[in-house]
Write a structure and sequence with these properties.
By secondary structure, the chain is an alpha+beta fold. It is built from eleven helices and 16 strands. The protein folds into four domains: 123 residues, no CATH class; 85 residues, Profilin-like (3-Layer(aba) Sandwich); 78 residues, Helix Hairpins; 165 residues, Histidine kinase-like ATPase, C-terminal domain (Heat Shock Protein 90), CATH 3.30.565. The C terminus is likely disordered. It binds adenosine-5'-diphosphate.
Amino acid sequence: MRPRLALVLAVLVLSPLVALAWLGVRLTDGEDRAVQVRFDGVIAARLDETAEAVKRVIAALEGDLLAATDDLPPDAPALRSRLRAERRLGHVLVFDGEARLSFPPPDGPLSADERAFLERTRGLWENRDFARPAAGDAAQDGGVVPGWYIWFWAGGLNLMYRRPLPDGRTVAVEVDRPRLLAAVIAALPTTERAPSTGTERLTLVDSSGRVVYQWGAWEPPAGLSPRLERALPPPLEAWRLTWSGPPPPAPSMAGLYAGLAGVALALLGLALWFYRASTAELRRAARRVSFVNQVSHELKTPLTNIRMYAELLDDALWDADDRTRRHLGVIVDESQRLSRLIGNILTFARHQRDRLTLRPTPHRPDALVEGVLAQFEPAFAAKGITIEADLDAEHRAALDADAVGQILANLLGNVEKYAADGGRVTVSTRQPGDTLRLTVADAGPGVDKAHRARIFEPFYRVSDRLSDGVAGTGIGLGIARTLARLHGGDLVLEPSAVGARFTATFAAPRAEPAGGAAREELS
Ligand code: ADP
Protein backbone atom coordinates (compact mmCIF):
# COMPACT_ATOMS: atom_id res chain seq x y z
CA MET A 1 0.00 0.00 0.00
CA ARG A 2 2.64 2.51 1.04
CA PRO A 3 5.04 1.95 -1.87
CA ARG A 4 2.08 2.47 -4.21
CA LEU A 5 1.16 5.71 -2.41
CA ALA A 6 4.79 6.88 -2.66
CA LEU A 7 4.79 6.04 -6.36
CA VAL A 8 1.57 7.98 -7.00
CA LEU A 9 2.95 10.98 -5.08
CA ALA A 10 6.25 10.79 -6.97
CA VAL A 11 4.34 10.84 -10.28
CA LEU A 12 2.18 13.74 -9.03
CA VAL A 13 5.25 15.74 -8.02
CA LEU A 14 7.52 14.80 -10.91
CA SER A 15 5.07 15.35 -13.77
CA PRO A 16 4.45 19.08 -13.06
CA LEU A 17 8.17 19.50 -12.39
CA VAL A 18 9.12 17.94 -15.71
CA ALA A 19 6.47 20.11 -17.41
CA LEU A 20 7.83 23.22 -15.67
CA ALA A 21 11.44 22.36 -16.54
CA TRP A 22 10.44 21.85 -20.17
CA LEU A 23 8.64 25.21 -20.11
CA GLY A 24 11.72 26.80 -18.53
CA VAL A 25 13.99 25.46 -21.25
CA ARG A 26 11.56 26.67 -23.94
CA LEU A 27 11.41 30.12 -22.31
CA THR A 28 15.21 30.33 -22.05
CA ASP A 29 15.47 29.33 -25.68
CA GLY A 30 12.88 31.86 -26.79
CA GLU A 31 14.47 34.63 -24.72
CA ASP A 32 17.91 33.79 -26.12
CA ARG A 33 16.57 33.95 -29.68
CA ALA A 34 14.86 37.28 -28.94
CA VAL A 35 18.13 38.70 -27.57
CA GLN A 36 20.01 37.55 -30.71
CA VAL A 37 17.38 39.15 -32.97
CA ARG A 38 17.50 42.45 -31.00
CA PHE A 39 21.30 42.41 -31.07
CA ASP A 40 21.40 41.78 -34.83
CA GLY A 41 18.86 44.57 -35.28
CA VAL A 42 21.12 47.06 -33.49
CA ILE A 43 24.16 46.06 -35.57
CA ALA A 44 22.13 46.13 -38.80
CA ALA A 45 20.95 49.66 -37.94
CA ARG A 46 24.54 50.78 -37.42
CA LEU A 47 25.67 49.24 -40.72
CA ASP A 48 22.71 50.84 -42.52
CA GLU A 49 23.62 54.19 -40.98
CA THR A 50 27.20 53.82 -42.19
CA ALA A 51 26.06 52.80 -45.70
CA GLU A 52 23.79 55.83 -45.71
CA ALA A 53 26.76 58.09 -44.89
CA VAL A 54 28.73 56.55 -47.78
CA LYS A 55 25.75 57.23 -50.04
CA ARG A 56 25.90 60.90 -49.05
CA VAL A 57 29.64 60.98 -49.85
CA ILE A 58 28.99 59.60 -53.34
CA ALA A 59 26.13 62.04 -53.95
CA ALA A 60 28.41 64.93 -52.95
CA LEU A 61 31.11 63.59 -55.28
CA GLU A 62 28.58 63.43 -58.13
CA GLY A 63 27.57 67.03 -57.43
CA ASP A 64 31.23 68.11 -57.52
CA LEU A 65 31.88 66.34 -60.80
CA LEU A 66 28.77 67.82 -62.45
CA ALA A 67 29.74 71.33 -61.35
CA ALA A 68 33.37 70.92 -62.47
CA THR A 69 32.45 69.63 -65.97
CA ASP A 70 29.61 72.05 -66.75
CA ASP A 71 31.60 74.37 -69.04
CA LEU A 72 34.56 72.40 -70.37
CA PRO A 73 36.52 74.34 -73.02
CA PRO A 74 36.36 72.82 -76.53
CA ASP A 75 40.04 72.63 -77.56
CA ALA A 76 42.80 70.52 -76.12
CA PRO A 77 45.19 73.21 -74.81
CA ALA A 78 42.41 75.06 -72.98
CA LEU A 79 41.15 71.76 -71.60
CA ARG A 80 44.61 70.84 -70.40
CA SER A 81 45.07 74.10 -68.50
CA ARG A 82 41.57 73.76 -67.08
CA LEU A 83 42.35 70.25 -65.82
CA ARG A 84 45.53 71.50 -64.22
CA ALA A 85 43.59 74.26 -62.44
CA GLU A 86 40.60 72.16 -61.40
CA ARG A 87 41.53 70.05 -58.38
CA ARG A 88 38.22 68.13 -58.47
CA LEU A 89 39.05 66.64 -61.88
CA GLY A 90 41.71 64.04 -62.64
CA HIS A 91 41.86 62.39 -66.04
CA VAL A 92 38.98 62.89 -68.47
CA LEU A 93 37.88 61.39 -71.77
CA VAL A 94 35.93 63.75 -74.04
CA PHE A 95 33.92 62.42 -77.01
CA ASP A 96 32.47 64.45 -79.89
CA GLY A 97 28.83 64.24 -80.99
CA GLU A 98 29.71 61.14 -83.08
CA ALA A 99 31.02 59.31 -79.99
CA ARG A 100 34.62 59.62 -81.26
CA LEU A 101 37.31 60.39 -78.74
CA SER A 102 38.40 64.03 -79.07
CA PHE A 103 40.42 64.43 -75.84
CA PRO A 104 43.10 63.45 -75.08
CA PRO A 105 43.56 63.59 -78.88
CA PRO A 106 44.51 59.98 -79.76
CA ASP A 107 46.66 61.09 -82.73
CA GLY A 108 47.89 64.44 -81.36
CA PRO A 109 50.87 65.16 -79.12
CA LEU A 110 50.31 63.59 -75.70
CA SER A 111 52.06 63.87 -72.36
CA ALA A 112 53.40 60.66 -70.81
CA ASP A 113 50.61 60.78 -68.22
CA GLU A 114 47.94 61.16 -70.92
CA ARG A 115 49.43 58.34 -72.91
CA ALA A 116 49.34 56.04 -69.90
CA PHE A 117 45.73 57.04 -69.20
CA LEU A 118 44.72 56.34 -72.82
CA GLU A 119 46.52 53.04 -72.67
CA ARG A 120 44.68 51.80 -69.60
CA THR A 121 41.29 53.05 -70.78
CA ARG A 122 41.68 51.80 -74.34
CA GLY A 123 38.95 49.20 -73.77
CA LEU A 124 36.53 52.04 -72.99
CA TRP A 125 37.15 54.68 -75.61
CA GLU A 126 37.66 52.25 -78.47
CA ASN A 127 34.17 50.94 -77.72
CA ARG A 128 31.91 53.46 -79.46
CA ASP A 129 28.94 52.44 -77.33
CA PHE A 130 30.67 53.87 -74.27
CA ALA A 131 29.92 57.47 -75.37
CA ARG A 132 26.78 56.83 -77.40
CA PRO A 133 23.26 57.36 -76.06
CA ALA A 134 21.81 54.08 -74.83
CA ALA A 135 18.49 52.80 -76.10
CA GLY A 136 15.24 53.82 -74.40
CA ASP A 137 14.85 56.89 -72.21
CA ALA A 138 18.40 58.06 -72.72
CA ALA A 139 17.92 58.12 -76.49
CA GLN A 140 14.89 60.38 -76.17
CA ASP A 141 16.89 62.86 -74.14
CA GLY A 142 19.36 62.89 -76.98
CA GLY A 143 22.42 61.96 -74.94
CA VAL A 144 24.10 59.74 -72.39
CA VAL A 145 22.37 59.52 -69.00
CA PRO A 146 24.70 60.95 -66.33
CA GLY A 147 25.96 58.17 -64.13
CA TRP A 148 28.70 55.88 -63.00
CA TYR A 149 30.60 53.43 -65.08
CA ILE A 150 32.53 50.68 -63.34
CA TRP A 151 35.37 48.70 -64.75
CA PHE A 152 37.96 46.50 -63.18
CA TRP A 153 41.56 47.18 -63.83
CA ALA A 154 44.84 46.74 -61.97
CA GLY A 155 43.28 44.32 -59.50
CA GLY A 156 40.49 46.57 -58.37
CA LEU A 157 37.39 48.55 -59.04
CA ASN A 158 37.70 51.77 -61.05
CA LEU A 159 35.01 54.37 -61.46
CA MET A 160 34.23 56.73 -64.31
CA TYR A 161 31.59 59.40 -64.07
CA ARG A 162 29.99 59.93 -67.43
CA ARG A 163 27.81 62.83 -68.45
CA PRO A 164 26.58 64.56 -71.62
CA LEU A 165 27.70 68.17 -72.13
CA PRO A 166 25.33 70.95 -73.31
CA ASP A 167 27.24 71.25 -76.59
CA GLY A 168 26.57 67.58 -77.58
CA ARG A 169 29.92 66.19 -76.36
CA THR A 170 30.19 63.48 -73.70
CA VAL A 171 32.75 63.57 -70.93
CA ALA A 172 33.90 60.71 -68.70
CA VAL A 173 35.89 61.66 -65.59
CA GLU A 174 38.07 59.09 -63.93
CA VAL A 175 37.64 59.08 -60.16
CA ASP A 176 40.94 58.88 -58.34
CA ARG A 177 40.85 55.68 -56.26
CA PRO A 178 42.84 56.94 -53.22
CA ARG A 179 40.70 60.07 -53.09
CA LEU A 180 37.48 58.08 -53.28
CA LEU A 181 38.71 55.78 -50.54
CA ALA A 182 39.67 58.72 -48.35
CA ALA A 183 36.20 60.26 -48.82
CA VAL A 184 34.44 56.99 -47.99
CA ILE A 185 36.60 56.38 -44.94
CA ALA A 186 35.87 59.89 -43.72
CA ALA A 187 32.22 58.88 -43.58
CA LEU A 188 32.90 55.78 -41.44
CA PRO A 189 33.17 55.83 -37.62
CA THR A 190 36.45 57.50 -36.67
CA THR A 191 39.24 55.57 -35.01
CA GLU A 192 39.13 57.88 -31.97
CA ARG A 193 35.71 56.47 -31.15
CA ALA A 194 36.99 52.89 -31.33
CA PRO A 195 36.33 51.18 -28.00
CA SER A 196 39.49 49.98 -26.31
CA THR A 197 37.70 47.10 -24.61
CA GLY A 198 37.58 45.16 -27.87
CA THR A 199 33.89 44.36 -28.08
CA GLU A 200 33.56 44.61 -31.85
CA ARG A 201 35.28 45.05 -35.19
CA LEU A 202 34.00 46.86 -38.27
CA THR A 203 35.82 46.37 -41.57
CA LEU A 204 35.51 47.73 -45.10
CA VAL A 205 36.46 45.11 -47.68
CA ASP A 206 37.07 46.14 -51.27
CA SER A 207 36.02 44.31 -54.43
CA SER A 208 39.09 42.07 -54.35
CA GLY A 209 38.54 41.07 -50.70
CA ARG A 210 41.23 43.37 -49.24
CA VAL A 211 40.49 45.00 -45.93
CA VAL A 212 40.82 48.71 -46.71
CA TYR A 213 39.62 49.98 -43.38
CA GLN A 214 39.25 48.53 -39.90
CA TRP A 215 37.70 49.88 -36.71
CA GLY A 216 37.38 48.34 -33.23
CA ALA A 217 39.88 46.31 -31.24
CA TRP A 218 38.09 42.96 -31.11
CA GLU A 219 40.17 40.13 -32.56
CA PRO A 220 37.90 37.50 -34.11
CA PRO A 221 39.10 33.93 -33.57
CA ALA A 222 40.58 32.31 -36.66
CA GLY A 223 37.98 30.99 -39.08
CA LEU A 224 35.07 32.98 -37.63
CA SER A 225 33.08 34.70 -40.34
CA PRO A 226 31.53 38.13 -39.69
CA ARG A 227 28.18 38.18 -37.89
CA LEU A 228 26.65 40.69 -40.35
CA GLU A 229 27.54 42.15 -43.76
CA ARG A 230 26.26 45.07 -45.86
CA ALA A 231 27.12 45.97 -49.45
CA LEU A 232 27.89 49.68 -49.94
CA PRO A 233 25.45 51.67 -52.07
CA PRO A 234 26.05 51.88 -55.88
CA PRO A 235 28.44 52.33 -57.54
CA LEU A 236 30.46 50.74 -54.72
CA GLU A 237 28.21 47.70 -54.33
CA ALA A 238 31.22 45.40 -54.79
CA TRP A 239 32.59 46.70 -51.48
CA ARG A 240 31.32 45.27 -48.19
CA LEU A 241 31.04 46.52 -44.64
CA THR A 242 31.33 43.67 -42.16
CA TRP A 243 30.68 43.49 -38.42
CA SER A 244 32.31 40.91 -36.14
CA GLY A 245 32.14 40.59 -32.39
CA PRO A 246 31.43 38.23 -29.54
CA PRO A 247 27.84 36.96 -29.36
CA PRO A 248 25.55 38.82 -26.97
CA PRO A 249 25.55 37.45 -23.43
CA ALA A 250 22.86 34.82 -22.84
CA PRO A 251 19.90 36.24 -20.91
CA SER A 252 20.02 35.57 -17.20
CA MET A 253 17.56 32.85 -16.28
CA ALA A 254 18.47 32.89 -12.58
CA GLY A 255 15.04 34.26 -11.64
CA LEU A 256 13.23 31.60 -13.63
CA TYR A 257 15.34 28.79 -12.17
CA ALA A 258 14.85 30.16 -8.67
CA GLY A 259 11.09 30.20 -9.31
CA LEU A 260 11.20 26.62 -10.60
CA ALA A 261 13.21 25.52 -7.58
CA GLY A 262 10.65 27.24 -5.33
CA VAL A 263 7.75 25.44 -7.03
CA ALA A 264 9.66 22.15 -6.80
CA LEU A 265 10.27 22.65 -3.09
CA ALA A 266 6.65 23.60 -2.48
CA LEU A 267 5.45 20.49 -4.37
CA LEU A 268 7.89 18.26 -2.51
CA GLY A 269 6.81 19.75 0.81
CA LEU A 270 3.17 19.22 -0.09
CA ALA A 271 3.80 15.63 -1.17
CA LEU A 272 5.75 14.92 2.02
CA TRP A 273 3.01 16.39 4.16
CA PHE A 274 0.37 14.41 2.28
CA TYR A 275 2.42 11.21 2.53
CA ARG A 276 2.90 11.63 6.27
CA ALA A 277 -0.77 12.51 6.82
CA SER A 278 -2.02 9.53 4.83
CA THR A 279 0.44 7.05 6.36
CA ALA A 280 -0.60 8.31 9.80
CA GLU A 281 -4.22 7.71 8.77
CA LEU A 282 -3.30 4.23 7.54
CA ARG A 283 -1.57 3.50 10.84
CA ARG A 284 -4.64 4.69 12.75
CA ALA A 285 -6.90 2.50 10.56
CA ALA A 286 -4.60 -0.49 11.15
CA ARG A 287 -4.76 0.16 14.91
CA ARG A 288 -8.58 0.29 14.73
CA VAL A 289 -8.73 -3.03 12.86
CA SER A 290 -6.34 -4.58 15.36
CA PHE A 291 -8.45 -3.21 18.23
CA VAL A 292 -11.69 -4.69 16.79
CA ASN A 293 -9.80 -7.92 16.24
CA GLN A 294 -8.62 -8.06 19.85
CA VAL A 295 -12.03 -7.25 21.25
CA SER A 296 -13.64 -9.89 19.03
CA HIS A 297 -11.12 -12.43 20.30
CA GLU A 298 -11.88 -11.47 23.89
CA LEU A 299 -15.63 -11.84 23.23
CA LYS A 300 -15.27 -15.22 21.61
CA THR A 301 -14.55 -17.29 24.75
CA PRO A 302 -17.29 -15.93 27.06
CA LEU A 303 -19.77 -16.16 24.19
CA THR A 304 -18.90 -19.80 23.53
CA ASN A 305 -19.45 -20.48 27.25
CA ILE A 306 -22.84 -18.71 27.23
CA ARG A 307 -23.91 -20.72 24.20
CA MET A 308 -22.67 -24.03 25.62
CA TYR A 309 -24.35 -23.56 29.04
CA ALA A 310 -27.59 -22.34 27.42
CA GLU A 311 -27.65 -25.51 25.29
CA LEU A 312 -26.90 -27.64 28.38
CA LEU A 313 -29.71 -25.91 30.25
CA ASP A 314 -32.02 -26.48 27.31
CA ASP A 315 -31.23 -30.20 27.47
CA ALA A 316 -31.59 -30.34 31.27
CA LEU A 317 -34.87 -28.45 31.32
CA TRP A 318 -36.57 -30.64 28.75
CA ASP A 319 -39.68 -30.76 30.95
CA ALA A 320 -39.78 -27.05 31.74
CA ASP A 321 -42.77 -24.95 30.72
CA ASP A 322 -42.94 -23.50 27.18
CA ARG A 323 -42.17 -19.96 28.28
CA THR A 324 -38.90 -20.96 29.97
CA ARG A 325 -37.88 -23.08 26.97
CA ARG A 326 -38.67 -20.17 24.59
CA HIS A 327 -36.50 -17.85 26.65
CA LEU A 328 -33.68 -20.38 26.56
CA GLY A 329 -34.13 -20.69 22.77
CA VAL A 330 -33.71 -16.92 22.40
CA ILE A 331 -30.46 -17.04 24.41
CA VAL A 332 -29.13 -19.88 22.20
CA ASP A 333 -30.19 -18.14 18.93
CA GLU A 334 -28.79 -14.77 19.86
CA SER A 335 -25.50 -16.19 21.12
CA GLN A 336 -25.22 -18.13 17.83
CA ARG A 337 -25.83 -14.93 15.87
CA LEU A 338 -23.18 -13.14 17.93
CA SER A 339 -20.75 -16.02 17.35
CA ARG A 340 -21.32 -15.73 13.56
CA LEU A 341 -20.73 -11.99 13.67
CA ILE A 342 -17.51 -12.37 15.62
CA GLY A 343 -16.43 -15.22 13.33
CA ASN A 344 -16.98 -12.93 10.32
CA ILE A 345 -15.02 -10.05 11.89
CA LEU A 346 -12.09 -12.31 12.74
CA THR A 347 -12.07 -13.85 9.26
CA PHE A 348 -12.24 -10.38 7.69
CA ALA A 349 -9.34 -9.14 9.85
CA ARG A 350 -7.26 -12.23 8.99
CA HIS A 351 -7.99 -11.68 5.30
CA GLN A 352 -6.91 -8.04 5.58
CA ARG A 353 -3.60 -9.17 7.01
CA ASP A 354 -3.22 -11.88 4.35
CA ARG A 355 -3.33 -14.50 7.07
CA LEU A 356 -6.43 -16.32 5.92
CA THR A 357 -5.59 -19.94 5.09
CA LEU A 358 -7.75 -23.04 4.89
CA ARG A 359 -7.05 -26.51 6.26
CA PRO A 360 -9.15 -29.03 4.34
CA THR A 361 -9.66 -32.42 6.02
CA PRO A 362 -11.95 -35.30 4.96
CA HIS A 363 -15.62 -34.60 5.70
CA ARG A 364 -18.98 -35.80 4.47
CA PRO A 365 -20.44 -32.55 3.00
CA ASP A 366 -24.06 -33.31 3.83
CA ALA A 367 -23.15 -33.92 7.49
CA LEU A 368 -21.58 -30.43 7.64
CA VAL A 369 -24.68 -28.89 6.05
CA GLU A 370 -27.07 -30.77 8.35
CA GLY A 371 -25.13 -29.52 11.41
CA VAL A 372 -25.57 -25.88 10.35
CA LEU A 373 -29.24 -26.39 9.42
CA ALA A 374 -29.87 -27.84 12.89
CA GLN A 375 -28.48 -24.65 14.46
CA PHE A 376 -30.85 -22.48 12.41
CA GLU A 377 -33.95 -24.62 12.89
CA PRO A 378 -35.28 -22.93 16.07
CA ALA A 379 -34.76 -19.38 14.76
CA PHE A 380 -36.32 -20.24 11.38
CA ALA A 381 -39.25 -21.96 13.10
CA ALA A 382 -39.82 -18.83 15.20
CA LYS A 383 -39.99 -16.75 12.00
CA GLY A 384 -42.15 -19.22 10.10
CA ILE A 385 -39.47 -20.23 7.60
CA THR A 386 -39.55 -23.85 6.47
CA ILE A 387 -36.29 -25.47 5.45
CA GLU A 388 -36.42 -27.73 2.42
CA ALA A 389 -33.23 -29.80 2.38
CA ASP A 390 -32.37 -31.45 -0.95
CA LEU A 391 -29.04 -32.97 0.00
CA ASP A 392 -27.02 -35.21 -2.28
CA ALA A 393 -23.33 -34.92 -1.34
CA GLU A 394 -22.53 -38.09 0.54
CA HIS A 395 -18.89 -38.70 -0.33
CA ARG A 396 -16.14 -37.79 2.07
CA ALA A 397 -14.01 -35.08 0.49
CA ALA A 398 -11.25 -32.67 1.54
CA LEU A 399 -13.11 -29.65 2.94
CA ASP A 400 -12.41 -26.93 5.45
CA ALA A 401 -15.39 -27.50 7.74
CA ASP A 402 -15.20 -24.02 9.28
CA ALA A 403 -15.20 -22.34 5.85
CA VAL A 404 -18.15 -24.38 4.54
CA GLY A 405 -20.02 -23.79 7.81
CA GLN A 406 -19.33 -20.05 7.79
CA ILE A 407 -20.46 -19.65 4.17
CA LEU A 408 -23.71 -21.55 4.77
CA ALA A 409 -24.36 -19.74 8.06
CA ASN A 410 -23.89 -16.36 6.37
CA LEU A 411 -26.29 -17.30 3.57
CA LEU A 412 -28.89 -18.65 6.00
CA GLY A 413 -28.43 -15.65 8.31
CA ASN A 414 -29.28 -13.41 5.35
CA VAL A 415 -32.40 -15.48 4.59
CA GLU A 416 -33.46 -14.99 8.21
CA LYS A 417 -32.81 -11.22 7.96
CA TYR A 418 -34.01 -10.37 4.45
CA ALA A 419 -36.21 -13.21 3.14
CA ALA A 420 -38.31 -14.33 6.10
CA ASP A 421 -41.43 -13.12 4.27
CA GLY A 422 -40.91 -15.80 1.61
CA GLY A 423 -41.61 -18.43 4.25
CA ARG A 424 -39.24 -21.07 2.89
CA VAL A 425 -35.65 -21.77 1.98
CA THR A 426 -34.27 -24.57 -0.14
CA VAL A 427 -30.79 -25.83 0.67
CA SER A 428 -29.39 -28.28 -1.85
CA THR A 429 -26.03 -30.01 -2.27
CA ARG A 430 -24.51 -31.83 -5.25
CA GLN A 431 -21.14 -33.49 -5.57
CA PRO A 432 -20.12 -33.95 -9.24
CA GLY A 433 -16.62 -35.48 -9.21
CA ASP A 434 -14.19 -33.57 -7.02
CA THR A 435 -16.49 -30.56 -6.70
CA LEU A 436 -19.08 -29.68 -4.09
CA ARG A 437 -21.97 -27.41 -5.03
CA LEU A 438 -24.12 -25.84 -2.31
CA THR A 439 -27.20 -23.77 -3.17
CA VAL A 440 -29.36 -21.66 -0.86
CA ALA A 441 -32.52 -20.35 -2.55
CA ASP A 442 -35.18 -18.35 -0.77
CA ALA A 443 -38.55 -16.89 -1.79
CA GLY A 444 -37.95 -13.40 -0.43
CA PRO A 445 -37.70 -10.10 -2.32
CA GLY A 446 -34.41 -11.08 -4.04
CA VAL A 447 -31.64 -8.65 -4.92
CA ASP A 448 -32.31 -5.78 -7.30
CA LYS A 449 -30.35 -5.93 -10.58
CA ALA A 450 -28.53 -2.68 -9.74
CA HIS A 451 -27.03 -4.20 -6.57
CA ARG A 452 -26.27 -7.74 -7.76
CA ALA A 453 -22.56 -7.21 -8.42
CA ARG A 454 -21.96 -4.91 -5.48
CA ILE A 455 -23.44 -6.93 -2.60
CA PHE A 456 -20.16 -8.91 -2.49
CA GLU A 457 -18.07 -5.76 -1.88
CA PRO A 458 -16.94 -5.31 1.73
CA PHE A 459 -19.26 -3.01 3.76
CA TYR A 460 -21.76 -2.74 0.90
CA ARG A 461 -25.38 -2.89 2.01
CA VAL A 462 -28.43 -2.35 -0.16
CA SER A 463 -29.82 -0.07 2.50
CA ASP A 464 -28.00 1.32 5.50
CA ARG A 465 -31.00 2.95 7.09
CA LEU A 466 -31.43 1.90 10.71
CA SER A 467 -35.16 2.44 10.24
CA ASP A 468 -35.20 -0.59 7.92
CA GLY A 469 -34.71 -2.55 11.10
CA VAL A 470 -32.24 -5.11 9.72
CA ALA A 471 -28.85 -5.01 11.41
CA GLY A 472 -25.75 -5.96 9.46
CA THR A 473 -22.15 -5.04 8.73
CA GLY A 474 -22.03 -5.62 4.99
CA ILE A 475 -19.10 -8.05 5.18
CA GLY A 476 -20.96 -11.42 5.27
CA LEU A 477 -21.26 -12.11 1.52
CA GLY A 478 -17.77 -10.75 0.80
CA ILE A 479 -16.24 -13.12 3.34
CA ALA A 480 -18.31 -16.03 2.04
CA ARG A 481 -17.07 -15.39 -1.51
CA THR A 482 -13.44 -15.02 -0.31
CA LEU A 483 -13.65 -18.34 1.53
CA ALA A 484 -15.22 -20.11 -1.48
CA ARG A 485 -12.49 -18.77 -3.75
CA LEU A 486 -9.77 -19.79 -1.31
CA HIS A 487 -11.36 -23.19 -1.49
CA GLY A 488 -10.82 -23.29 -5.24
CA GLY A 489 -14.42 -22.37 -6.08
CA ASP A 490 -16.68 -19.31 -6.04
CA LEU A 491 -19.89 -17.85 -4.68
CA VAL A 492 -22.38 -16.37 -7.13
CA LEU A 493 -25.88 -14.97 -7.10
CA GLU A 494 -27.73 -16.89 -9.80
CA PRO A 495 -30.70 -15.60 -11.75
CA SER A 496 -33.97 -16.95 -10.37
CA ALA A 497 -37.69 -16.38 -10.89
CA VAL A 498 -38.33 -15.63 -7.21
CA GLY A 499 -36.16 -14.60 -4.28
CA ALA A 500 -32.38 -14.86 -4.13
CA ARG A 501 -30.44 -17.95 -5.18
CA PHE A 502 -26.81 -18.17 -4.05
CA THR A 503 -24.59 -21.05 -5.17
CA ALA A 504 -21.21 -21.78 -3.62
CA THR A 505 -18.79 -24.18 -5.29
CA PHE A 506 -15.73 -25.79 -3.70
CA ALA A 507 -12.84 -27.83 -5.01
CA ALA A 508 -13.29 -30.92 -2.84
CA PRO A 509 -11.16 -33.92 -3.88
CA ARG A 510 -12.88 -37.05 -2.70
CA ALA A 511 -11.25 -39.01 0.10
CA GLU A 512 -12.57 -42.34 -1.24
CA PRO A 513 -13.21 -43.63 -4.75
CA ALA A 514 -16.54 -42.50 -6.26
CA GLY A 515 -19.27 -44.95 -5.46
CA GLY A 516 -17.55 -46.19 -2.24
CA ALA A 517 -19.57 -46.71 0.89
CA ALA A 518 -20.43 -43.52 2.68
CA ARG A 519 -19.50 -43.56 6.30
CA GLU A 520 -21.10 -41.52 8.97
CA GLU A 521 -19.17 -38.38 9.86
CA LEU A 522 -18.24 -38.57 13.52
CA SER A 523 -16.34 -35.35 14.04
P1 ADP B 1 -25.18 -7.67 5.74
O1 ADP B 1 -26.18 -8.78 5.75
O2 ADP B 1 -24.37 -7.58 6.97
O3 ADP B 1 -25.78 -6.38 5.32
P2 ADP B 1 -24.05 -9.10 3.52
O4 ADP B 1 -22.72 -8.95 2.85
O5 ADP B 1 -24.36 -10.46 4.09
O6 ADP B 1 -24.11 -7.98 4.60
O7 ADP B 1 -25.17 -8.73 2.48
C1 ADP B 1 -25.05 -7.59 1.68
C2 ADP B 1 -26.42 -7.10 1.24
O8 ADP B 1 -26.99 -8.03 0.31
C3 ADP B 1 -27.41 -7.03 2.32
O9 ADP B 1 -27.36 -5.75 2.96
C4 ADP B 1 -28.75 -7.27 1.64
O10 ADP B 1 -29.28 -6.05 1.21
C5 ADP B 1 -28.39 -8.09 0.44
N1 ADP B 1 -28.77 -9.50 0.62
C6 ADP B 1 -27.99 -10.52 1.04
N2 ADP B 1 -28.66 -11.69 1.04
C7 ADP B 1 -29.94 -11.40 0.63
C8 ADP B 1 -31.13 -12.20 0.42
N3 ADP B 1 -31.16 -13.53 0.67
N4 ADP B 1 -32.23 -11.57 -0.02
C9 ADP B 1 -32.22 -10.23 -0.26
N5 ADP B 1 -31.13 -9.45 -0.09
C10 ADP B 1 -30.01 -10.02 0.35
